[in-house]
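To: structure subgroup
Subject: Chain for Friday's discussion

All,

I'm putting the inputs and outputs inline so they're searchable in the archive.
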Amino acid sequence: MDVKELRNQSVSALNEMLIKLLKEHFEFRMQHKSSQLDNFSKLGKTKKSIAQIKTIIRQKQA
């Protein structure tokens, strides 16, 4: 999702997306440790998305 689209979301919707991404990132890490993850870039992409959402949530709360 684009950053502009994320900024238009409500804080509750962003929190739901954040929880989903955190679970997804956890699954990717477990797959990576057990050598089942094919595409390692998924780890970096989810980590970046998590950081973007956290930043937007903090900006909206300030």
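Points worth raising on Friday:
The radius of gyration is 13 Å.
The first helix runs from residue 3 to 7.

D.
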